[in-house]
Amino acid sequence: MTVSKINQGAPSPRYIAVEGPIGAGKTSLAKRLAESLSADLVLEEVYENPFLERFYHDGESAALPAQMFFLFMRARQLETLRQPDLFASVRVSDYLYSKDRLFAELNLSSDELQLYNQVEATLAVDAPVADLVIYLQASVDSLLERIARRGVAYERAIDRRYLERLTDAYARFFHGYNEGPLLIVNASQIDPINNDADYEQLYRQIERTTGGRHFYNPAAAALA
Predict the structure, then answer these.
(1) 3-class SS at 132?
(2) Could you tell me if 29 and 192 are in contact, meaning their C-beta atoms sit under 8 angstroms apart?
(3) Highest mean pLDDT among 57-66, 84-93, 137-146, 215-224
(4) CATH for 15-223, options being 3.40.50.1820, 1.10.10.10, 3.40.50.300, 1.20.1250.20
């Protein structure tokens, strides 16, 4: 499928971040967007975290090392994004650095969160602000279905209650997000990865999103 370049006639975003809870499809969408835009891809590398499996099976014992691994990994990646010579090309990421705190506050005890805050302050990461953030919202039922479909063995330990807390935390985070343009997508009823029509419609909405806060709800539009 051929798609146009984003925002023809307007300044094009150089850094696009795709966000959403586990199972929302952020990594798959980031990959497809990067291909459409001939952009460099920056991935969270979730499955490289050696503490993640233990976290899903026994959250308390592995929450801190899992969180610290992600913090250091994201800090290292974003340091490369700040190098001036790398801004010549477009970059698409499947995470937003500022949401790291969302997981820290959700999963860590008060003492662990205090330690996390100290380490994060010492790192002093000057994360670049995304020119566009795409937040994929999805129901807990659809997240559970997609997690089961992709068949990662240890993700089967993720339960509904944790996903409910996670989706609530994401909703609160993006309710107060004001760092730049934000596109909130109802991703429960669309499949922009495997359905070309869904992707093309979403891509056109991304083209139109140049500032402010926007909502994309194709299911509601179809009923109008």
Answers:
(1) strand
(2) yes
(3) 137-146
(4) 3.40.50.300
